[in-house]
């Protein structure tokens, strides 16, 4: 009964495929049957459809499912596969890429290719994904074609572990055991917390989310166990079962129990396919290449440095088709949003201009709105030039995010806030110990004139509000008052690093060598965490650094409060316990993600004649088959960088600041005199419970 309903759903999706490309979209309107999203890939939104087509054939023995899968697979390998990449395309125009980034859910596809028997592309894509993991410790939720972070989250997804298991089963190559070992080590080192494993909020900084999804237990642990399990460890023969997309086991004998619904789909003709690898289709997990243990290695070898030392940006299919024809009448480097003549040319090319609330300007191209097909092609080339121009500027001027870590009671380094860097002042990447001190709110709060409470600011880290003057002016004023650092808090209510582009503070166009203190920028949400902590605890100490530090590093050479030490732990094991119970070894990645914009501004985009310079890099990311968009800025202070919602940056850097365990030392003199007197057990427990309650209250906002 349920199987009939499931089959009807599969039949409907099959009938709604785009007949010329044999691709299906990502999202469909269940009421009208129309595609809501007409881009096609193998990742989020469509992954399980392909998986169930092949596995339905394996389990039910119905040839129609295999024929459908092979038809789709031929289209995937023809249009979506750009080894080792898998890029979404438009179902109506499959030669046109729909995006320039990939999501982490496509990591399941090498495993499905193993089940299909197409091993070579499975090895290639898996190796590319592994190189991304080695760069960022985890697979970011999305990453660009030049392997930079697009979406920084990682909810401990199991798809890569799944593909690793199936590749090991298929090849018997011990290399995949090493891959599994790396996954386990990274989980224990970066994701383990006292009550389990926490999802990563940002793979660059190592910050956590207060969640552990059920698929982590149901799939990740299962595939890792099976990867390392010997035959005698299994109480049943795993070859007698097939995995669902959620790693539940279904016995293969189900295929012999009911043959009444095993039938051909007589309503649809299948495309004649000329693909020799279909001969390899083998719905089992037996070892395919037992006599050639070097087979997989020979495929991996050319890809081992694909992330770190190369920038695989080939000529796009669109560029290929356009060739080296005439240049558009308006070049991207000459464009000015304030020039009426330029706007008229854009309109003719089908490019419209949209002013965003934050001061940025977005360009969107709709080919159907162009005056002619030639003008539409001019518009497309203009958009591509804009992408290249923005990406080149990103390559020249870009800084990674910084970290603001609350180290005082009751946080003790657990709370890490992602902060925007400044193009002036102390370079925290060259001062690994960072700057540590108590925070103090300055008067006036905007920091645009002489500080009237210097006694409260001296030898402290000054808190100030964004607006009314340039960042460099704020820095000079608090430095003159004796501050050892500064934090600028965004006055845009509700702004957050979760949703806004990473912000980069630029100078004032003058020489800023006189500014020697570190300056960081916090969005409103993150800034309020510090302000709330001040209201609650008054004395709040923070660490400004390029990467978050673990607690063993933070408290090295300092007294640690008795109440953060487990009563059952001997003092000589304290460092080890702290390391095990706090896996917040926060590590900042070189956050020049091609998908993120670090909008650098020298002036504040507020009232009083201030101007905005925050800008997105160009993005050729069509909303439909005939459109493309790019965000730019017409401000002189524009310095593009990275934006989680923006476009990829085709630039590569040879030096990879890969997150790693911190080995730097903090300052030897603590600003806090911890109370290490011997306390009764009841007092220790009372303090401990009080700390947990206070921390949970603050942690709710951050995590």
What does this protein structure show overall?
- This is alpha-1,2-Mannosidase.
- Belongs to the glycosyl hydrolase 47 family.
- Keywords: Calcium, Endoplasmic reticulum, Glycoprotein, Glycosidase, Hydrolase, Metal-binding, Unfolded protein response.
- It is found in: Endoplasmic reticulum.
- One of its GO terms (biological process) is endoplasmic reticulum mannose trimming.
- By secondary structure, the protein is of the alpha+beta class.
- Among the domains are: 1-99, no CATH class; 120-256, no CATH class; 337-397, no CATH class; 402-555, Glucose Oxidase, domain 1.
- It contains 18 helices and 27 strands.
- Strands 19-18-25-20-21-22-24 form a seven-stranded mixed β-sheet, with helices on both faces.
- A hairpin with a 6-residue loop joins β1 (27-28) and β2.
- α4 packs antiparallel against α5 and α4 packs parallel to α6.
- The longest helix is centred in the middle third of the chain and has 24 residues, at 373-396.
- The two termini are 44 Å apart.
- Residues 260-268, 275-287, 310-327 and 561-679 have low confidence and may be disordered.
**Kindly, what is the distance between the CA atoms of the first and last residues, rounded to a whole number of angstroms?**
44 Å
With strands numbered from the N-terminus, the spatial order across the biggest sheet is 19-18-25-20-21-22-24
Low confidence ranges: 260-268, 275-287, 310-327, 561-679
Number of helices: 18
Measured as a percent range, the helix fraction is 25-40%
What is the alpha-carbon Rg in Å?
Answer: 28 Å
β-strand number: 27
Mind describing the biggest β-sheet? 7 strands, mixed
């Amino acid at each position: 009964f349920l199987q009939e309903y499931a089959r009807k759903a599969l039949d409907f999706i099959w009938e709604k495929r785009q007949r010329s490309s044999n691709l299906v979209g990502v999202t469909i309107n269940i009421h009208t049957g129309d595609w809501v999203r007409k881009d096609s890939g193998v990742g989020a939104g469509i992954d399980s459809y392909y998986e169930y087509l092949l596995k339905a054939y394996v389990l039910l023995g119905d040839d129609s499912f295999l024929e459908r899968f092979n038809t789709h697979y031929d289209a995937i390998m023809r249009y979506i596969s750009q080894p080792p990449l898998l890029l979404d395309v438009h179902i109506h125009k499959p030669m046109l890429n729909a995006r320039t980034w990939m999501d982490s859910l496509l990591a399941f596809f090498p495993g499905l290719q193993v089940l299909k028997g197409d091993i070579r592309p499975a090895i290639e894509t898996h190796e590319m994904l592994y190189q991304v993991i080695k760069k960022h410790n985890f697979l970011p939720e999305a990453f660009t074609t030049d392997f930079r972070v697009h979406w920084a989250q990682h909810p401990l997804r199991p798809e890569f572990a799944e593909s690793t298991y199936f590749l090991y089963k298929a090849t018997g190559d011990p290399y995949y055991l090493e891959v599994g070992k790396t996954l386990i080590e990274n989980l224990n080192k970066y994701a383990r917390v006292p009550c389990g494993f926490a999802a990563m909020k940002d793979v660059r900084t190592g910050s956590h989310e207060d969640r552990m999804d059920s698929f982590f237990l149901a799939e990740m642990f299962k595939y890792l166990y099976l990867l390392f399990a010997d035959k005698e460890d299994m109480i049943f023969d795993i070859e007698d079962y097939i995995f669902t997309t959620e790693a539940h086991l279904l016995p293969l004998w189900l295929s012999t129990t009911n043959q009444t619904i095993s039938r051909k789909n007589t309503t649809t003709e299948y495309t004649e396919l000329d693909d020799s690898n279909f001969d390899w289709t083998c719905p089992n997990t037996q070892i395919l290449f037992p006599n050639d243990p070097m087979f997989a290695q020979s495929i991996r070898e050319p890809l081992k440095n694909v992330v770190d030392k190369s920038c695989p940006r080939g000529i796009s299919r669109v560029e290929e088709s356009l060739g080296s024809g005439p240049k558009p009448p308006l070049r991207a480097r000459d464009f000015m949003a304030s020039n009426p003549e330029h706007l008229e040319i854009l309109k003719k090319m089908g490019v419209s201009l949209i002013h965003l609330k934050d001061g940025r300007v977005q360009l969107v191209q709709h080919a159907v709105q162009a005056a002619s097909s030639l003008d539409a092609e001019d518009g497309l080339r203009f958009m591509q030039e804009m992408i290249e121009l923005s990406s080149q500027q990103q390559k020249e001027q870009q800084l990674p995010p910084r970290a603001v870590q609350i180290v005082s009671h009751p946080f003790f380094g657990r709370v890490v806030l992602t902060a925007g860097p400044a193009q002036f002042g102390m370079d925290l990447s060259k001062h690994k110990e960072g700057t540590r001190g108590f925070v103090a709110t300055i008067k006036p709060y905007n920091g645009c004139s002489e500080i009237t409470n210097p006694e409260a600011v001296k030898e402290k880290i000054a808190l100030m509000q964004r607006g009314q003057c340039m960042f460099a002016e704020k820095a000079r004023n608090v430095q003159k008052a004796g501050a050892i650092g500064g934090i600028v808090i965004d006055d845009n209510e509700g702004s957050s690093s979760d949703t806004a582009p990473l912000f980069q503070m630029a100078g004032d166009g003058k020489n800023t060598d006189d500014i020697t203190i570190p300056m960081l920028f916090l969005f409103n949400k993150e800034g309020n965490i510090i302000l709330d902590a001040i209201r609650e605890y008054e004395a709040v100490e923070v660490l400004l650094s390029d990467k978050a530090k673990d607690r063993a590093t933070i408290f090295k050479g300092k007294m640690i409060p008795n109440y953060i030490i487990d009563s059952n732990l001997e003092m000589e094991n304290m460092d080890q316990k702290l390391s095990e119970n706090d896996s917040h070894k926060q590590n900042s990645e070189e956050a020049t993600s091609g998908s993120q914009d670090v909008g650098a501004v020298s002036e504040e985009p507020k009232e009083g004649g201030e101007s905005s310079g925050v800008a997105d890099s160009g993005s050729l990311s069509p909303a439909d088959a005939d459109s493309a968009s790019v965000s730019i800025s017409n401000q002189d202070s524009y310095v593009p960088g990275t934006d989680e919602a923006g476009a990829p940056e085709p630039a590569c850097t040879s030096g990879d600041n890969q997150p790693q365990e911190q080995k730097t030392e903090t300052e030897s003199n603590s600003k806090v005199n911890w109370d290490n007197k011997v306390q009764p057990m009841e007092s220790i427990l009372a303090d401990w419970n009080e700390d947990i309650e206070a921390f949970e209250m603050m942690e709710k906002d951050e995590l």
